[in-house]
Amino acid sequence: INSNHTYRLNKSEVRVTAMLAAISLVAKQIGNELFLSSYTVETYRKNIQQKFGVSNTGELISVCISANII
Q: Whole-prediction pTM value?
């Protein structure tokens, strides 16, 4: 996990991450809610994980909660 990294997510990335954490939605459901394709949601998730240096959604959610992002 990138502990020395300043977390910078765009508005859409924050919304996707919050939805992943709050209600455990899958990409297709998140896409439907945000009017995005599931491919776009997966791209956001992968980009966010890369920004935070984590390898899975659970780690991502943990880091975002710790950083008060969601």
A: 0.62
